[in-house]
Amino acid sequence: MTDQSVDTPGEMPETPPDAALEFNYDLDDAPEKVWRAITRPEYRQSWLPDADLAETEPCVITPGEEVRYRMREDTPPFRESAVTFRILPSPAGGTHLHIIHEPPAIQAAANNNSPAMMRAA
Amino acid sequence: MNENEIFKALADPTRRAIFEKLAAGARNASTLREGMTISQPAMSQHLAVLRKAQLVTEERQGRFINYSVDPDGLVMIADWLQKYRAYWPDRVAALKDVLKGMDQ
Q1: What DSSP line would sit under B11-63, residue for residue?
Q2: Which CATH architecture has domain A19-112?
Q3: Which residue among A32, A68, A71, B69 is the one 20 to 30 A from A49 at the CA level?
Q4: Model pLDDT for residues B7-41, shown as the tens digit of each residue
């Protein structure tokens, strides 16, 4: 508990995004090409199989930069999670790929429907 | 199994404080609130989130509901982290192969 929470009793603090698995990769290919490989099903299913996803359609957050997939395990207990890919141009003309995979515990928090749990977009 | 990683999944500082209290022993919602500046509805919400995440279980005892740490939840998070920590490097290796086969 920190002192800030004294002023806002009853409010749910926002879940910080650092409670997830994160990976960073530098790829030689251009960001536009990496974006296509991640978002177009014909390319995506060759490296991220449909069986690992809850929905095969991606949720584009920022075109060309940020995209999210809902994932589901293909074996019991079929835990659901979400992965976000962030694509940034690297100085050498390649792509910096940032992968953020949120565990089911965080998903449970994010999926709560009560108004106090609403998070800023 | 890395304990720090398990607690990392409990990102919210208030929920983490609640969870740590429960790790020391089962309690009901009102004794949980002792020493914490948190309203009863907020406590209920935090407990609901922890239960939904399978980190906490509840058991009715007379007029009270006792909350305790759910060991299954801890094992689940550790499993999950272990699985996907190995998963993504493999997937990115496959992504690199896909990129090689694509036109510019």
Answers
A1: -SHHHHHHHHHHHT--EEHHHHHTT----HHHHHHHHHHHHHTTSEEEEEETT
A2: 2-Layer Sandwich (3.30)
A3: A32
A4: 545 777 888 889 889 988 999 988 999 999 999 99
A18 interfacial to chain B (CB closer than 8 Å)? yes
The model's pTM is 0.64
Mutation choice for B interface testing from A14, A52, A79 by most B CBs within 10 A: A79
The answer, yes or no, to whether the previous bond of B41 is cis (omega within 30 of 0) is no
Q: What is the pLDDT of residue B7?
A: 54
CB B69 within 8 Å of CB A5: no
Domain locations in chain A?
A: 19-112
pLDDT at A115: 34
The CATH class of the B3-101 domain is mainly alpha
- Chain B residues in contact with A29 (beta carbon < 8 A): 99
Torsion of CA B87, B92, B94, B95, to 10 degrees: 140
Q: What is d(CA A43, CA B103) in angstroms, rounded to the nearest whole number?
A: 12
